[in-house]
């Protein structure tokens, strides 16, 4: 009875009688709707594919890669002309990095509301010349204003040329500090006849005015009357 029932059940469900068949692999299960078998390319096949994409030594009977594909891959499709190479080398020879340039001297313009101070320094920061309105005979409140600063700038420019300091200066950087009347007087002298020999050596103009963000409490404003 049992044998008859087992044989009938095996004929009705053939899969029960084939318990020893191999299971489908995980890769096969992941490609359930694919009719082509999954194959892995070997090392030689991968190298041949790379050569074909890069337009190198392609196998016989096959064309090289599309020029558009070569451009996307960063491969030059045409050889660089000799004229273009000479032009690039000429431009590169004319461009001088900032590190190769001669270090610049610095001319500090401190335009305070009570005084104006000009300081000429070497590239390493050591001072060569430093003067204020007090060196010209102005005392106390008379040091402030446009006229004392104008005379100071004219005198400093004359001293730079008389002392021969201009011979050692190839690049000059002007550094402003403050926005008072001494700054306008310096610009007037630099662009005028007094600064004709100095403004040609100016390579950079910068501003180092102090800006306060929070900090200590400012003194109270002075009130007159």
TrEMBL record:
One of its GO terms (biological process) is translation. Component of the mitochondrial ribosome (mitoribosome), a dedicated translation machinery responsible for the synthesis of mitochondrial genome-encoded proteins, including at least some of the essential transmembrane subunits of the mitochondrial respiratory chain. The mitoribosomes are attached to the mitochondrial inner membrane and translation products are cotranslationally integrated into the membrane. Keywords: Mitochondrion, Ribonucleoprotein, Ribosomal protein. It comes from the Eukaryota. Coiled coil: none annotated. This is Small ribosomal subunit protein uS11m. The lineage of its organism: Eukaryota, Fungi, Dikarya, Ascomycota, Pezizomycotina. InterPro entries: Ribosomal_uS11, Ribosomal_uS11_sf. Belongs to the universal ribosomal protein uS11 family.
